[in-house]
Amino acid sequence: MPDRKRRLKILILHMILLPTLIYTVFFFSLAPKPWTGVDEAVVEKVAREHGREARPPLVATDKGDLLLFIFLLAGAVGGFAGGYYWRMLVGEKKTPPQDKKAE
């Protein structure tokens, strides 16, 4: 009997969650246009009002794997620093030497 109640609870849960998930995906896929970020909605608008148009970036990270390479370098530098100072980060605390004048 407990197994039957458990199966019924799982069935009811699926009957509630699956249509909710399907509806959510369907609802967001029908959006009329993509949401604009702060750059497009605010910064570019204010810059245009003041006579400054957007220029292409000096280093275009959207083409190729340059952005991936930058993240790789940052991870390598962070990993090296964390490994180098590992004992200091998680090791034992060193006790300061006793001052002889205090005796």
Largest sheet: none
Overall mean confidence score, pLDDT:
83
Identify the overall geometry. flat
One letter per element, helices H and strands E, the order comes to HHHH
Descriptive account of the structure:
With 103 residues, the chain is mainly α. Among the domains are: 1-34; 56-91. 62% of the residues lie in helices and 0% in strands. It contains 4 helices and no strands. It is flat, with a radius of gyration of 29 Å. The protein starts with a helix and ends in a 13-residue tail after the last helix.
Summarize it.
By secondary structure, the protein is mostly helical. The chain is built from four helices and no strands.
Write the layout of secondary structure elements.
Layout: H1 2-29, H2 38-49, H3 66-84, H4 86-90
